């Protein structure tokens, strides 16, 4: 019986030596060490042996089992290392090959315009202030000299959430809120960027959602000449030192007097062309002196304080700056359009 065990051990060790896969080794383990294997069958016949022979056969069987098990483990480790080396060779990286370009995004053109305009006005001493997009009727209209029955409300067809809440139609409510926080004490010098909403049909020049930047300066002895000087400095910084502005009388409920502000055409230099409709001028924003009622609503003494306000559409400034012909390009997320604004 001991001789049979020795033969089985030699056979198993030779098969282990010849095995070339981990799966083959697992089959050998089951074949020789499993419950139905030849070594187990030999051990089952130990009951027929004498009391002297049993310990010797049992000891030999254990030695052979341990030898086979150790050989299996060693061979398994060897084959796994070989497989790992082959896999590493297949997955090796040639560091001399050119790398893949990492695609980088860019600021959205509207974001870039907003940041540029903010920087200009910060340089003129203004602070950037923001407010809620869902606004009360009071701040959006009444505090800006637009009572419920005011006909000018028809100029802004609004999205109402409730009877008293709506999506703001302008960023002017931020001005009213800021003035109230100052409790009638100046100066107040802010610009307010943000999204606004009006019920409008979307086309090349209109959108139901667009962006505005409004400005406000309230202090003692603020004059129309301060407004003109501020806007002229802004226009020359944004469009170029060769550009000029002109003011035309207009009407806004929250300013008196009110003006439309035009900038000289950058295409024809004021001579007249298709872009400026042969006038030499392009309308860019509205402005005026803060209406006394608006000052009083916000707690300022209109006999002591005065101020100016202005508002501009960000999309319009972006259209003029980049020569874009359709406002809808800003919102369709066409990657071909956005890639044009990547910085070098």
TrEMBL record:
GO molecular function per UniProt: ATP binding; catalytic activity, acting on a protein; magnesium ion binding; phenylalanine-tRNA ligase activity; transferase activity; tRNA binding
UniProt binding sites for Mg(2+): 256
Residue ranges of every copy of the Aminoacyl-transfer RNA synthetases class-II family profile domain listed in the record: 111-320
Catalytic activity, as annotated: tRNA(Phe) + L-phenylalanine + ATP = L-phenylalanyl-tRNA(Phe) + AMP + diphosphate + H(+)
The enzyme's E.C. designation: 6.1.1.20
First-tier enzyme category under EC: ligase
Names of required cofactors: Mg(2+)
Gene3D superfamilies referenced in this protein's UniProt entry, alphabetically: Bira Bifunctional Protein, Domain 2
Note on how the cofactor is bound: Binds 2 magnesium ions per tetramer.
Quaternary structure, from the entry: Tetramer of two alpha and two beta subunits.
Family: Belongs to the class-II aminoacyl-tRNA synthetase family. Phe-tRNA synthetase alpha subunit type 1 subfamily.
Name of this protein: Phenylalanine--tRNA ligase alpha subunit
Source organism: Alteribacillus bidgolensis
Subcellular localization, as worded in the UniProt entry: Cytoplasm
GO BP terms: phenylalanyl-tRNA aminoacylation
Pfam families tied to this protein: Phe_tRNA-synt_N (PF02912), tRNA-synt_2d (PF01409)
């Amino acid at each position: 019986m001991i001789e049979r065990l020795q033969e089985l051990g030699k056979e198993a060790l030779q098969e282990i030596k010849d095995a070339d896969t981990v799966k083959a080794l697992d089959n050998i383990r089951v074949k020789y060490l499993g419950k139905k294997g030849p070594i187990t069958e030999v051990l089952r016949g130990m009951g027929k042996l004498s009391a002297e022979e049993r310990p010797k056969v049992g000891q030999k069987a254990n030695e052979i089992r341990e030898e086979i098990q150790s050989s299996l483990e060693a061979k398994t480790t060897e084959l796994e290392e070989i497989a790992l080396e082959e896999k590493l060779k297949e997955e090796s990286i040639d560091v001399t090959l050119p790398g893949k370009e990492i695609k980088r995004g860019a600021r959205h053109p509207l974001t870039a315009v907003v940041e540029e305009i903010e920087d200009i006005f910060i340089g003129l001493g203004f602070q950037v202030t923001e407010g809620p997009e869902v606004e009360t009727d009071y701040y959006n209209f009444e505090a800006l000299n637009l009572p419920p029955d005011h006909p000018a409300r028809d100029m802004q067809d609004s999205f109402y959430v409730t009877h008293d809440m709506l999506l703001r139609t302008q960023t002017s409510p931020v001005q009213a809120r800021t003035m109230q926080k100052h409790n009638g004490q100046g100066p107040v010098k802010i610009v307010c960027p943000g999204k606004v909403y009006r019920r409008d049909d979307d086309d090349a020049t209109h959108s139901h959602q667009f962006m505005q930047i409004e400005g406000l300066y309230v202090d003692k002895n603020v004059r129309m000449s301060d407004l003109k000087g501020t806007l002229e400095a802004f226009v020359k910084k944004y469009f170029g030192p060769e550009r000029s502005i002109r003011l035309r009388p207009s009407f806004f409920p929250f300013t008196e007097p009110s003006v439309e502000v035009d900038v000289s055409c950058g295409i024809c230099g004021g001579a007249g062309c298709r872009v400026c409709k042969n006038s030499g001028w392009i309308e860019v924003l509205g402005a005026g002196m803060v209406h006394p009622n608006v000052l009083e609503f916000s707690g300022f003494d209109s006999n002591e304080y005065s101020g100016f306000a202005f508002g501009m559409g960000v999309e319009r400034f972006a259209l003029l700056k980049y020569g874009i012909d359709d406002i809808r390009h800003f919102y369709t997320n066409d990657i071909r359009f956005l890639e044009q604004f990547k910085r070098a």
